[in-house]
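Structure (tokenized):
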């Protein structure tokens, strides 16, 4: 596990990258990372493009605010993922434009918002289910995500954006970017392409030790 200072710096770098690429705007989105004694999470109403390492909130294992600015209101959601999935060391949530647009236009299926279209989508992202709209920070959403924390690598919150988790903050951000670009590809196709054949998906899962 990385030390606390390096995690603080990684969160700031990832936040800036996502902001500069347009995956988040204003004060939308949040990022967290697992520590041995708790978690780091971006402050409430913070701009991911202008984070400062020392101001990132720290909470202990009991969920108590220890230092930094006030934690994001999505803290409960992040904690549920970490509590259920010991392999999760980073969580990223954005309001990515094309993924939110997808929920407005209509997702492919409720249990998979996009069909398996590209090999890297299958390898790096996997199946992403839809969570019905509730206000930001609602406990019901956290409970639903907790039930899925070991089955998928992320979920799509209707009208809000993706929540992704994985082995590191950077790895999660890369998967989220892959998902956003796949949504843009799908939305840009007037005639929707067919999904990858089932055998091709199985081959990718077996060869790259992943799952759909």
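Design, position by position:
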């Amino acid at each position: 596990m990385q030390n606390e200072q390096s995690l603080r710096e990684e969160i700031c770098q990832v936040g800036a990258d996502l902001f500069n690429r347009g995956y988040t705007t204003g004060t939308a989105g949040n990022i967290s990372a697992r520590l041995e004694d708790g978690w780091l999470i971006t402050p409430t109403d913070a701009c991911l493009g202008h984070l400062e390492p020392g101001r990132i909130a720290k909470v202990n294992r009991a969920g108590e605010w220890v230092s930094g600015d006030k934690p994001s209101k999505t803290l409960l959601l992040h904690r549920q993922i970490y509590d259920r999935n010991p392999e999760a060391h980073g969580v990223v949530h954005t309001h990515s434009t094309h993924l939110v647009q997808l929920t407005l236009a209509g997702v492919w299926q409720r249990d998979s918002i996009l069909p398996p279209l590209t090999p890297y989508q299958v390898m790096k992202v996997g199946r992403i289910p839809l969570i019905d709209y509730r206000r930001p920070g609602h406990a019901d959403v956290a409970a639903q995500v907790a039930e899925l924390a070991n089955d998928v690598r992320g979920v799509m919150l209707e009208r809000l954006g993706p929540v992704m988790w994985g082995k590191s903050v950077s790895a999660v951000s890369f998967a989220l970017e892959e998902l956003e670009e796949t949504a843009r590809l799908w939305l840009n196709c007037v005639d929707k392409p067919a999904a990858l054949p089932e055998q091709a998906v199985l081959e990718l899962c077996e060869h790259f030790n992943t799952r759909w």
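Reviewer-requested clarification: Residues 169-188 form the longest helix (20 residues). The first strand starts at residue 30 and ends at 35.
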